[in-house]
Structures are given as structure tokens and as C-alpha cells.
């Protein structure tokens, strides 16, 4: 195990580690002790009908949801809903290459985990830990959108509403290749050492290059042109890279990023229907709002709209944000109000 | 000097090496023997009024223009025009870090060259070698567009028509950062050795990663989604990377790519007007067609349109091509017909 301060309660307050036990993975591996980092808000109603699930995105944890999306006055209101945010497997808080106590799956031996494995683990957690068998809403961004789609397709009877934000049900080839370029920044750092480093600091150079790729694809051309970083308190684009993106990613565990990336690249609900995406999305009975971000460079609106068109009774709700994909960080003052309006509309719909 | 077979007449037929002598550079360095690789087509009219200049793009040479853009039946018709394609300084054919015989500027000692330096060298070449003092047209793609804009702003009386394709007059911050990520792939390869490798093969890993970045930013999300590589004879996206983009870039000289990248990052015609882009573009008297590519990920149409709006009497002519920026390779059957139509319209306009 590697001690990495980023994955501590100093940075990530108030979460529980809950094991859902042995998890047999789609790719054939096994995690014997599948620990999930879980944060909850609010109270489960006696009828158990007010539960909202939030799965996390690549590099993300429950903390950004705590900081920006959840609270009184938001659509995700703990006074009305019991909200459960489950950190995805491999994200550094839930069971991950660097934090597992099981040497057979530590570091370079960590097994391949798929989006479906996360959803199976989450379903088990909700049922066994909280007695939740039906979700009022599943909502997530990016890889959280992938998991939201997977929930709606895999467990249609258990999902009343779904809100995938800035993500797709079937990963695109461009996205696969973009993610591969992220991985290559880590793989090419000699300090990565085939996944057998002893501190994430040894992979700092690769993580910095990785952060820079997020600069050009995660934000939009217009973000940089309009110098939106200045509103975040930075004096130059270089200062934004060294003061924001670089510290964000260099704090993280490289193998955690690689584990999530492998999963992200292969997200595909049509695995349930022999590759027929229309058939898979046609199974969705949840009331679904598809929420792309207008300036997203790698989950462009048209890719999300094409999937939305295959979901019965769904709506396309485009979030207007010049920040692009990393608008998910909710740094634009206009971002959360739009999310709140769309999620509020969705939650108010009878199902 | 490093012998690199890519920069030979086996690959690049029929070009001349012409020296324009000593070139004092904007950044303070000097190239004593400024050799330019030049290819011409057609015959200069006695009135010397049928000359067309084509500057080259990042990684490009005159060869792509010979193969795809120039010939009978094209707007760039050697039966009507005297066409001069000048390879940019640092492109591996013109004077470059790996091919100079001057040890004071070889390899890591190669001086910083700006777009304006190229244009000054080209103007001297045209005047001294061919007696050309006025251009019927300057046309180029990407960095060739940067040089076209520089010509029209720096020498307004010498340019009758200009057609910048898929490029900008003032480089955008996003573009600067994207180019930096390309550079980082080379810099991070231990074989690059601070620019003092003895064969470009030593930087192969970095050049492969560099090629992959072109895959995700140079082509468009739609290129990959529509599997446009299949029309180019490849069986998979991976096969297209290993069979097309990787061999293309791994054949090249890393320091040449870095020299061009430095120049690209800093292209800015407003250097002539104290940073006032509107004033710089307002100086243009050439009849100008601005030709962005519809799916370009890093020279988006709106960036080009914003500049076009500042050029008196100009027109915006968007080239529709799902290939994105690397549509410049003219692999889509619909690409060259559009270029021919727009350039034909422009050349037929009285000036």
C-alpha cells in the first residue's frame, strides 16, 4: 500500500468505507474485498422512495459533488432526498491498485474493472446496506454518465429517472484514443516502472503532461480565448496550468488513473444486447434527461443527442458552458443553476 | 548533419535548394546561409503578373501540394500560373537544425525563427531569383495560412489575393497549448537528449506519442465515429494510427518539428501594430478569402470568422470536411473540389 495524502479525510471529508465483499469481474478477475468509499446526505424515507445515486467521474470523487452540487436550495437537496455518492472502483478512495491490502491485486496486478462491475457493486451496496431497491434518480457526469446509462439499461426496473451529464452510453472511438493519449503520458514516465513505483511523486513528469492534455481537450478553445481562467483568480494561462490542473492531477495515483481510464475506454451498454445500441437504449424505462455540455470537445453534443434519440421518452437538455467538459468542476457561475433547473424538472416529473 | 531519408529526392521530387544568403532574425539570431527548398510549376508571364506563392504547414513540404492541389484542371493550374512553393525554414528541407552545414546553428543551437522571418526570406527569394514583385495569390494551409496572413499584412502592396486555409493570423492560446503538448512528447523522450540525438530513430517513442495527439486533435470526433479511415484502406482505427500517422511523423526530424512548433505558437500579425489585431488586418488590401475547415478542432470556424470580419472586403468560405484539420491532406474526395472552387472564384476576381 502507498500512502497518498490526497486520498485522506483531510481532502475528502465524511465518507465511509463499506465492503460489498467478493466481486467477480466481467473480465474474469476477482476482488475479494470490494471496499467502496461512500458519502451520504439526507435521510432515507420510510418508503425508501427518495434515494438518489451519484457515481463518480474519471479522477473525481464524492467531494466535488459535496462542494458544488448538493445542498439546500439545489435540486440535489438533502432535505428531500437520501443522496448516496459512491466512488468508482479504482478511483483511489474505493478499492484501488495503491490502497488494497490484497497483494494479489496490488499495483500492476490490479484486475480489469468495467463500468458494469461498478454498477453491480453499487446495486449490492444500496440493497444490502440501505435496503434501497429503487432509485428516484441516478445522476453522474462523464464516467458517472456511463455508470448512469449502465444502471438504466442493466436494471431498468430499479431506475425511475436518469440524468447522464457530459457522457455517453457507448464510448466513442475518438474518446478511446484521447484516453489512450492520457495513459501514454503515464506509461512513458520511467518513474511509472510498469506500475511498480513506490510513490506517485515518481511519476510527476508524466502526470504533468497528462494534466496538460486536459488543458487542451478538457477545456474548450473558447475557454482559453476568453481567458476564463482569470475569473478563477489566475494571472495567465500558464499560471492556470501550474496552479490548477497540474496540482490537481499530480496529487493523484497514476495506477488509479489508469484503472479508471481502461474502464472509461470500454464503457458500452450495448454489451447487454449483442452490440445493438438502439436495442440497449430502447430498454430504458427511466425518465431520462441527456445533459451534454455545449462546448465539450470530446463528448460533443451531437454524440449525446444521437444516443438520446434512441431512449424512449427522453429529453435533450444542453448545458451552455464555455468551459467545455471540465465545466463539470462547476466553476462557471451559470453552470450549477442550469443543472439545478434540469434536475429539478426531471425530479418533478411523475413516473 | 544527420542523414534522414525522408528529406531526400526519393520522397520529395523536383525541388531546388536556393540560398537567399544571410538572414537576420526577429529574435536576434542569424542564419548565414539561408537555404530554401523551392519547387515551381508553370511559366512566369512576361509581365510577371501570374505568380502564386504557397508557403508550407507544420510537418508539411511542397510534396502534398504537388500530389493533391496543383495541376491542370485545378485552380492552381501551371498552364496559367507560375506557382512557387517555398518550404518553410526548419521544415527539414529548407535550412533546419539537422541539415545545416553551419555548426554554430546545428541541432540544439538552431535559432528561434518567426513567421515574419520566413516571409522576409520568401520575398527576397521571389524578387532576386524570379524578379517577382507582386503576387496574384498567396495561399497556404495551417502554418501556411499564418505565412499568408503575414504576407498580406507585411507587404500589402505586393499581394493581390490571399487565401489562408485552416489557420489564423494571430495564434490562439488554445493552439499554443496544444502545440506545447506536441513538443512535450518529443522533449520527454530520453532519446531526444536536449536536441543532441544522432538519429531521429532515437526519438521514435516520442514521435509516436506525438502522432497520437494528431489523431485526436488533428482529425475530428466525427472522422473517428464515421470510421473515415476505412475509405483510406485501413481495417481499424489502430491500423490507421500505426499505418498512417505513426510512419508519417516518425520519419521526420524531431528538432525540425520543434523549430516549426515554436514559430507556429507565436504567429501573430499584430506584432506590426503594437498588438492591435484589427489594425493589422485592416491594413490588408489583398482580396482575401478565409477558408476554415468545418470540423477543425483547433482552428475552429469561429476563430477564423472573427479574423475574417476584420479584413476589408474579405469573404468567409467554409470548407466542409469531416476530416477536420488534417482534411488538408486532401484525403476526402470532396475536399479539393471545394478548394478549387473557392480559389477559382478568388483568382477570377478583378483586383
UniProtKB/TrEMBL annotation, chains A, B:
It holds the Pfam family Abhydrolase_1. The active site is at residues 142, 296, 325. Transmembrane segments: none annotated. Residues 62-321 form the AB hydrolase-1 domain. Signal peptide: none annotated. PANTHER family: HOMOSERINE ACETYLTRANSFERASE FAMILY PROTEIN (AFU_ORTHOLOGUE AFUA_1G15350), HOMOSERINE O-ACETYLTRANSFERASE. This is Alpha/beta fold hydrolase. The lineage of its organism: Bacteria, Bacillati, Actinomycetota, Actinomycetes, Micrococcales. The keyword Cytoplasm does not apply. GO terms for molecular function: acyltransferase activity, transferring groups other than amino-acyl groups; hydrolase activity. Keywords: Hydrolase.
